[in-house]
Amino acid sequence: MPRYSFKIDSLSPEDGYGWMLRYFQDDVEIPGYEIFSAPAGVAWMVQQEFENAKFTGELWVEKMASGHINTMGSPFRYEPVTEQLKLWLK
User: Fold this and answer.
1) Torsion angle of alpha carbons 12, 54, 40, 31, nearest 10°?
2) Domains of the chain: which residue ranges?
3) 4: nearest Cα among 80, 84, 59, 81
4) pTM for the structure as a whole
5) What distance in Å separates the CA atoms of residue 47 and residue 42, rounded to the nearest whole number?
6) pLDDT, tens digit, for every residue of 12-67?
7) 3-state secondary structure of 42
8) Whether 75 contacts 51, CB under 8 Å
9) Which letter does DSSP use for residue 57 in this model?
10) Separation between Cα atoms, residue 79 and residue 77, nearest integer Å
11) Helices (H), 1-90
């Protein structure tokens, strides 16, 4: 059974404020990504967009894993990145 996961990275300052959601199958990145952006200096909105990205990633993994019997526990794996916390707590 394929293993699906996602990763949320903070956007570089040149790209704006927010998050980039990337998808993986068996630890190989699937081409394409989604951007969740927020205005500069609006901390609660940046946090909300992070939650939106995480929810979207979880829904995608659930959709991809549906139809398979999961014997390993949770069908998704969230991989935090330390840069998220730096932007998240500002």
Assistant:
1) 40
2) 4-88
3) 59
4) 0.70
5) 9
6) 877 778 999 999 999 999 998 999 999 888 889 999 999 999 999 999 999 998 85
7) coil
8) no
9) H
10) 6
11) 43-65, 82-88
